[in-house]
Specification:
By secondary structure, the chain is mainly alpha-helical. It is about 80% helix and about 0% strand. Helix 2 packs antiparallel against helix 3, helix 2 packs parallel to helix 4 and helix 9 runs antiparallel to helix 10. The longest helix has about 35 residues. The termini are far apart. The relative contact order is 0.14.
Length: about 210
C-alpha cells in the first residue's frame, strides 16, 4: 500500500505534492498510527529531484504538524476525559494520558519539544497538553520548533539519499517501532505498579 501512495505522489504537480505533505502531517496527529514519516522522507526525494523546492516542503509539512497538534490540544482542553470515556478515540487510552500528564508535571514544556521525536505518542501528548491546561501560546511555539526540526531532518534525509529512499524509510519505521514499543512497555509497567500499590493500600476485609 505504501508503494501505491508513493507512485501516486510522483504523478502529482508541485502544488499537489505540497498539499499531500500538509495533509499527511496533519492527519497523523488526528488518526494515528500513520506512515507519515516514511512519506515525508519520500517527499524529500522529490525535493532532491527538483519536483518541489526544499523551503516550501519544510514549511508546508511543519504547518500541517502544528495544525494537527493544535486541533488535538483544543479537543483535550475542551473535552478532556469526557471525550476519552466515549471510546471514540481508541488511540488515547486513559492510562497513557495519565502517564503523559505526569511527564508534564515532571518535565514541563520539554515534553512538547520532544513530542515529534516520540513516534506513536504525538496525538497523546498534544491531547494531554490540552487536558493539562498548558499555555497554548508556549505549546504552539514549542510544537512548531519540534516539528520544524524533525520534518527538516526527514526531508533532508530523503533529499540526500535520492532513489535509495527506502533505506532511510526502513530506519525511520524501525525507530518509530522501537519508540512506540518502549512507551507501551513503560505504560504497562506503570499500570501494574499502580494496581499493586492500590491493592496494598486497600484495608483488609474483616
Amino acid at each position: 500500500m505504501l508503494e501505491q501512495w508513493i507512485a501516486s505522489l510522483q504523478q502529482l504537480p508541485p502544488e499537489g505534492i505540497l498539499a499531500v505533505a500538509f495533509l499527511i502531517t496533519l492527519v497523523e496527529n488526528l488518526f494515528p498510527p500513520s506512515p507519515s514519516d516514511t512519506l515525508l522522507v519520500f517527499c524529500g526525494v522529490l525535493v532532491g529531484l527538483g519536483t518541489v523546492d526544499f523551503a516550501s516542503m519544510v514549511l508546508v509539512a511543519t504547518a500541517g504538524s502544528v495544525v494537527g497538534f493544535s486541533v488535538m490540544f483544543w479537543l483535550g482542553y475542551q473535552f478532556g476525559v469526557r471525550l476519552v470515556d466515549t471510546g471514540r478515540l481508541r488511540f488515547l487510552p486513559l492510562e497513557a494520558l495519565e502517564t503523559v500528564e505526569r511527564w508534564f508535571r515532571r518535565y514541563g514544556y520539554w515534553v512538547i519539544v520532544a513530542n515529534r521525536f516520540l513516534s506513536g505518542t504525538r496525538a497523546v501528548i498534544s491531547f494531554a497538553a490540552g487536558m493539562s491546561k498548558l499555555s497554548f501560546l508556549w505549546t504552539l511555539l514549542l510544537s512548531l520548533l519540534s516539528a520544524l526540526v524533525w520534518n527538516t531532518l526527514l526531508i533532508t534525509a530523503g533529499w540526500s539519499v535520492g532513489q535509495n529512499w527506502q533505506e532511510i524509510a526502513h530506519w525511520v519505521q524501525l525507530y518509530g517501532t522501537i519508540v512506540t514499543a518502549a512507551v507501551l512497555v513503560a505504560l504497562g509497567g506503570w499500570f501494574l505498579w499502580w494496581r499493586v500499590r492500590t491493592r496494598k493500600a486497600q484495608p483488609p476485609v474483616q
